[in-house]
Amino acid sequence: MSDAQLPAEQFAALSAVPRIIHGFTLRVPGIEMSHDKADVLARLDSVHRSIRADHAVSTMPFITAQQIHGNEIAVVNVSPSADKCFADCDGIITDQRGICLGIYVVDCCAVYLVDPVRSAIGLVHSGKKGTESGIVPNAIKAMTVHFGSRPSDLIVQLSPCIRPPHYEIDFAGEIVRQCRALGVNSIHDNGVCTACDLTRYYSYRAEKGRTGRMLAFLALDYSSLSSPAR
Predict the structure, then answer these.
(1) Residues 6+ apart with CB under 8 A from 104
(2) Whole-number Å distance between alpha carbons of 187 and 185
(3) What is the pLDDT confidence band of residue 218, given thresholds at 50, 70 and 90?
(4) Residue 59 bridge partners (DSSP)
(5) Domain 59-220 carries which CATH code?
(6) What is the maximal distance between C-alpha atoms in the chain?
(7) Are 77 and 146 in contact (CB under 8 A)?
(8) 177: part of which helix (H) or strand (E)?
(9) Is residue 222 very low, low, confident or very high in pLDDT (cuts 50, 70, 90)?
């Protein structure tokens, strides 16, 4: 199978961190797309479940957010016993091992947050509106409050997302600027535009709404990343 056909891609900055499990699913050939998000997610569900199984997270509680283009962050500080979707939220943070965070994106950016010192993670949906309202800074500040994370310890990874000239603003660039302003040093963005490669990614703008979704997933393995300095 060629790289362009892989069902999920990974990011070097996150792969280098022990005990982190992550992925970003790609376009799935042969599945009819729809204008309705719920319908297309149902069609993609079995494939996404299979990809999660390939990454050994399918048996973990799957924690997602409703994603309303807002800036609210859900905090998971007790390990749930079942899958859960947080209403009215666009980001999730946790220090619990053995649960899988999930965010669905098409042209918006999935932002992965990893604190290898405090063994905490976050996953954020940030498009134009979410970026303007500061959802990524909100998530970083929430990790500081709830888990004692320091921005200078964080690893931030941006997923592929739509970018100029296919979109009128560069919200990925603004996310990077917001993170730097908070003191994050390790910020990674491969600069890939979803609208530029429809063989690999879905794009709401390029496909005029009749499209699929990529799943970003992130988990702390059952073993801790390090001994947290509490």
Answers:
(1) 37, 41, 64, 67, 125, 213, 214, 215, 216
(2) 6
(3) very high
(4) none
(5) 3.60.140.10
(6) 49
(7) yes
(8) helix 171-181
(9) confident
